[in-house]
Amino acid sequence: MSRASARPVCRTGFGRPGVNGLAGLVAALGRAVLDTIGAAGRLALFALNGLSHLLRPPFYWRNFVASFVEFAFFSLPVVALTAIFSGMVIALQSFTGFSRFNAQSAIADIVVLSVVRELGPVLAGLMVAGRVGAAMAAEIGTMRVTDQIDALGTLSTNPMKYLVAPRLLAGILALPLLVIIADILGVMGGFIVSVLKLGFSPTAYIANTAAFMQPMDVVVGLAKAAVFGFLIALMGCYNGYNSRGGAQGVGASTTSAVVAASILILCFDYVLTEMFFSR
Amino acid sequence: MSAAAVTPKIRIRGLSKSFGAKRVLDGIDLDVAAGTSTVIIGGSGSGKSVLLRCILGLVEPDAGSIEIDGQDVLAQGRREQEATRERIGMLFQNGALFDSLPVWENVAFGLLARRGAGRMSRAQARAHAGTVLAQVGLDPSVGNLAPSELSGGMQKRVGLARAIAATPEILFFDEPTTGLDPIMGAVIDGLIVDCVKRLGSTAIAITHDMASATRIGDRAAMLYQGRLVWQGEAALLMHSGNAMVEQFTHGRREGPIGMELRR
C-alpha cells in the first residue's frame, strides 16, 4: 500500500497559460472532469477495501467499541437538542400556516412525517458529521503525518483493518440508534409546543401521531441513517488517511471530511427519498 | 545450501524510485551482510527514508530488486510480504508511537497483533513489555503512561523497545538521534548497538549525525542525489578520501556538493 504512488497527472501541452485560450479552457475542464472521476474511483476502492476487511478476520473489537461509543453515546446530547427544537419549530410553523385553513389537526401528522422521514436522519447525520467525522479525520490524519499508519504496517497490522473497518461498522450501526432517539424526541418537541402553547389535547395529539405514523416511514428513516453513518465514517477515514503535509494538511482534510460528508448526506437523502417514497 | 553462507541478508539491485519528475532513488546497489550494521548517510531529502520504506514495502519502487535472505520481496504476494515485514523492526524518526494507547501496549503491539504460533495473551504481552522497557533503560512503570507524557528521549527509547519487542532479524533506524541532546544521542546509540548485538540482528540506520554513524555502523554508505556515491568501513567515514564524503562528514560549505536552493 504505497501512499506516495503517484496519482495520474494529465500532461498535455494544453492548459498551460498562453498556449491557446479555448483549448486551454477545454483542457482545464477535461482535467477537472478526469480528476473528479479519479477521485470518485479512489474513494470507491477505499470504501470497498474497508468493507472487505469486515468479512476477513481479525476484527478489532476494541477499536469498534471505542468508535461506536464516540459515535452514538457522546453524540447524544447534540442530536437530542437538535431533534427537540426541530420538532418544536415544525409544530409552531405549521400551526401558523394551517390555522388559515382550519387544518390545525394536521400538525401531528406534519411533525411525525417530517421528523421520522427527513429531519431525524438528516439533522442527526449533519450534527454527527460535524462532531465525529471531523474528529475521525483529524485523528487518522495526525496518525498519517506522524508515521503512525506506516508504523502499523511494520507491526504486522493492516491499517485498513485496524483503523478503517471498525469505524465504518460503527457508523453504520450507531447512526440508526441515534435516529430512533431523535425521532422520539422530535415528536416529543412537537407534542410539547402543541399541547402547552397551541392548546391541543394531549390524548388527541398522541392518537393523531399514532394514526399517521407508518412503520415503513420509520424503517426507511433508519435505512437512511445507516447510509449516512457509513458516509460520515467513510469521509472521515478517507480524508484522514490521505492527509499529507503536517498540521495544515490535517486541518484541510478535516474540513473536507465534514463538508464532503454533509453534501453527500443531502445528496443521498434525495436519492433515497426518490427510491422509497416517490411512487 | 552452501551459497547461503555468502548470500547477504539484504541485497538491493538497481533500485529506482521517482516522485513526479524528481528521481529520489537512482539505481541503488547495496549488500548488507547478516549480523552487521550499515549506516547510510546523506543530506536531507537525499532519499534515505524512501530507501527504508521501499524495503519495508511502504513505498513501491519503480524498478530494481530487493532480496531478503535471497528471496525477492517485491515479487511476493501480500501474505508473504506481511510475513517478511514481521521479521523487520523499525524505529521511526519521531517515534511514531500510537498516542491512543498506553506505552506498554505500544511496546507489545507487534506481539498482540501476531496470529497463530507466536501469539500472546494481553497479560503475557504486558509482562513482556515491562522486560523490554527495562532493556532500553526505562522503568516498567513507564508502561502505564501515555506516549504524550514522555520526553523526546524517552519516546525514542519506547520506539526502540517497540522495534525490538518481537526480536526481529532485521532492524531499521530512521535518524535515531535527531532532535536529542548529544548525551541522550550517545545513550540511544549505545542502546541500539546493545540491542543489535544481543538479538544478532542485521541493521540499517540512516542518519546525518556523524558521531552517531561511527558509533552504530560497521559499514557505511553515502547517498547523494539518489545514488550511493561511496561505500566502505564506518571507521573510515571521517577520512575516506572521497571528496563528497569528506565535505559531508566535516560539514564544509565548499566542495562537490552544491547547495540545492531550488527544486
SSE inventory with pairings:
The complex is a heterodimer of chains A (279) and B (263).
Chain A: H1 21-55, H2 61-73, H3 76-98, H4 107-145, H5 148-154, H6 159-196, H7 202-212, H8 215-241, H9 246-277
Chain B: E1 10-19, E2 22-32, E3 37-41, H1 48-56, E4 63-68, E5 71-72, H2 78-86, E6 88-91, H3 103-107, H4 109-113, H5 122-135, H6 152-164, E7 170-174, H7 182-199, E8 202-207, H8 210-216, E9 219-224, E10 227-233, H9 243-250
Parallel strand pairs in B: 3-8, 3-9, 6-7, 7-8
Antiparallel strand pairs in B: 1-2, 1-4, 4-5, 9-10
Helix pairs in contact in B: 5-6, 6-7, 7-8
Description:
The complex is a heterodimer of chains A (279) and B (263). By secondary structure, chain A is mainly alpha-helical. Chain A has two domains: 39 residues; 218 residues, no CATH class. Chain A has nine helices and no strands. The N terminus of chain A is likely disordered. With 263 residues, chain B is an alpha/beta fold. Chain B has two domains: 164 residues, Rossmann fold (3-Layer(aba) Sandwich), CATH 3.40.50; 61 residues, no CATH class. Helix content of chain B is 33%, strand content 24%. Chain B contains nine helices and ten strands. Chain B has a six-stranded mixed beta sheet, with helices on both faces. In chain B, strands 2-1-4-5 form a four-stranded antiparallel beta sheet, with helices on one face. The radius of gyration of chain B is 19 Å and the shape is globular. The mean pLDDT of chain B is 82. At the A-B interface, helix 4 and helix 5 of A face helix 2, strand 6 and helix 4 of B.
